[in-house]
Design brief:
Blueprint lengths: L8 H9 L4 E5 L10 H13 L3 E6 L10 H6 L9 H13 L1
Parallel strand pairs: 1-2
Helix pairs in contact: 1-2
Length: 97
């Protein structure tokens, strides 16, 4: 739900208005950018304001979310990749989130 939109006060207000008080937070840019402190503060404030609780977090699966599937494959993250460089890149990206 709302995956194609940047998570903001209005999205969280809509979630609460639908009677949803617990969510899984998908930590995937541009939906939620864990590296953007201002965005994190905005989301935290809205969650508190509308009394919506994050009960789980979904780690990012791409470095960036793109509509083009072929391009997305180039940016995917995988902790189980056979390629050491890809695993290390994935670990760094997930740790930064």
């Amino acid at each position: 739900m709302f995956l194609g939109r940047r998570l903001d006060r209005e999205v969280i207000r809509g979630i609460a208005a639908a009677g949803i008080d617990r969510i899984e937070l998908f930590i995937q840019r541009p939906h939620f950018d864990a590296l953007d402190e201002a965005h994190g503060a905005e989301v935290r404030a809205a969650l508190e304001e509308f009394r919506v609780e994050v009960i789980s977090a979904h780690a990012p699966i791409y470095r960036e979310r793109l509509k083009d599937r072929a391009a997305r494959r180039q940016l995917q993250l995988s902790l189980a990749d056979a390629d050491t460089a890809m695993r290390e890149l994935s670990i760094r990206e997930l740790n930064s989130a």
